[in-house]
Amino acid sequence: MAYGLPRKNAVETILRCNCYKVQEPWELVLLTKTWYTNLANIKLPFLEEIAFGSSIHLKKCKTIKDGLLPSAESIQLEREYEMKRLNNLKCEENAAEEIQFSLRERPVGLRRPLPPK
Question: Which of 12, 77, 107, 111 is deepest in the core (most CB within 10 A)?
């Protein structure tokens, strides 16, 4: 319980402890979860940046509307590539199975004992 008490005090202090009364550890977990969910929903910066007061600098970027959908040629090339890749995988699996069957059919004998020193 030594770990739970400082967290309880910190969370209650952050939430002004006027309407939140935490009595059990699982209530503290639920309270912390809702607090983080609310922070995520209002899209605040990360908590470390809030604590240190640093701002977030976002880079500008342009979106290209023409390049959103792939062309028919690129779809066809991707399909051909995937078919080749899947065929290679299937061939490798078949070769591995054949090797396993051939090793199983082979008679296995005992090793010769090592000569004494």
Answer: 12
Q: Is the pLDDT reported for residue 59 higher than 80?
A: no
Residue 11 lies in a domain: yes
What domain count does the chain have?
2
- How far apart CA 90 and CA 33 sit, in angstroms, is 46
- Domain span at residue 83 reads 74-105
How sure is the predictor about 1, in pLDDT bands with cuts at 50, 70 and 90?
very low
> Which residue stretches of the chain are H helix?
4-14, 25-41, 47-52, 72-105
- Eight-class DSSP state of 23: -
Report the 10 Å Cβ neighbour count for 79: 10
CA 35, 36, 41, 42 torsion-angle sign: positive
Reported pTM: 0.34
